[in-house]
Amino acid sequence: xxxxxxxxxxxxxxxxxxxxxxxxxxxxxxxxxxxxxxxxxxxxxxxxxxxxxxxxxxxxxxxxxxxxxxxxxxxxxxxxxxxxxxxxxxxxxxxxxxxxxxxxxxxxxxxxxxxxxxxxxxxxxxxxxxxxxxxxxxxxxxxxxxxxxxxxxxxxxxxxxxxxxxxxxxxxxxxxxxxxxxxxxxxxxxxxxxxxxxxxxxxxxxxxxxxxxxxxxxxxxxxxxxxxxxxxxxxxxxxxxxxxxxxxxxxxxxxxxxxxxxxxxxxxxxxxxxxxxxxxxxxxxxxxxxxxxxxxxxxxxxxxxxxxxxxxxxxxxxxxxxxxxxxxxxxxxxxxxxxxxxxxxxxxxxxxxxxxxxxxxxxxxxxxxxxxxxxxxxxxxxxxxxxxxxxxxxxxxxxxxxxxxxxxxxxxxxxxxxxxxxxxxxxxxxxxxxxxxxxxxxxxxxxxxxxxxxxxxxxxxxxxxxxxxxxxxxxxxxxxxxxxxxxxxxxxxxxxx
Length: 497
Description:
Elements: H1 13-34, H2 36-47, H3 51-79, H4 81-100, H5 105-119, H6 122-133, H7 137-168, H8 178-192, H9 206-229, H10 233-255, H11 269-299, H12 304-329, H13 334-352, H14 360-389, H15 395-432, H16 442-451, H17 457-492
């Protein structure tokens, strides 16, 4: 007697249309992470925030998203992923209006915090819904590729769209494009999107929610502060507190019958290996990215718009890689795609080490494209492995954990690479120009050099060369990190195929 594996149900026009509907809020979510930067001068002139308020206007959105991802992912598994997505869309539209018409800095900070809470529902809900909508492995990988593309496009067009809006309207108008998108989701979502929730789920443990939020927010806040001000007592204390909250959270989950985060997911080699690879890759790419953007403007002398255009091929590489990966996956196993992708990305980081020569800009653009083409399969196939290796009733929690690892690793990459790069920059400047002291950023040093007139030319030249050293060093660290991630995948997934 022979048995055959049933053929997965293929998606219909309804599922593909539903995918387009849920991709739009993902695009808006990514835009909201980047579009505000261009509006900051206008906001400062209008609302007159003090430096602390301005920092919270920028950061509070990302903080709230990161802190609530795990809670929202698990909440979606319990009350329904479509329901949570629609609730979040309605809240996002309303709070976007509140932000657009804010008349004080305090109101804008509150609106941005509420936007972050609403935004935390989007990524885990949409990714876990894709798990329910697309049962065929190759179709699901293509759908996740579209999902990744939405984030990439949103990040790329955010500054461009923001600049276009600010040319004709006030800064508040940068929040308004989200409103019609969310209204469209509210109108079409009930018809096109399936509902799914865990029928056996219990109540959410409030203590677990509090511990998870405290752990993530403390760690990310400490890392962001360290990236800005360096590691001091306050930053170290915040990080230690975050780690302590995290340990308490893990201990509580291991004792609950119905935990907020199912720790048994990590007993699955595919899940653990992919989460590790995803986290290390995000750490590397976020850490290097901050040096690339500064290098383009302060070393190569590009305007913000020119620097944005130079980075655009990076985003397009993610788009192309995300859409091509599912086609490759029809002929190559997922683990091989992950390994090959990370090997390609490692080559891209290594190529970036050559920046600083006579053909710096072409080398830099080529390196970022190679990096993005290598990273795209890691994000696309990686997220597919993460949500498909978890039980269906835990897909929301798995998706949330994936996004949380990306947020945390990104913050860690910025803090760690930023600190190491700054040390290399200061050492290089001192070696080239003994007696010079780099106490601020490269931008601050260049301003000092410009104020000194012709006598400052040597300082500017030495500072640019030292920053090039820092970029090359962080690129080398990125190559080593992604190489380690590749080894992790090889060791943990070697028996998967």
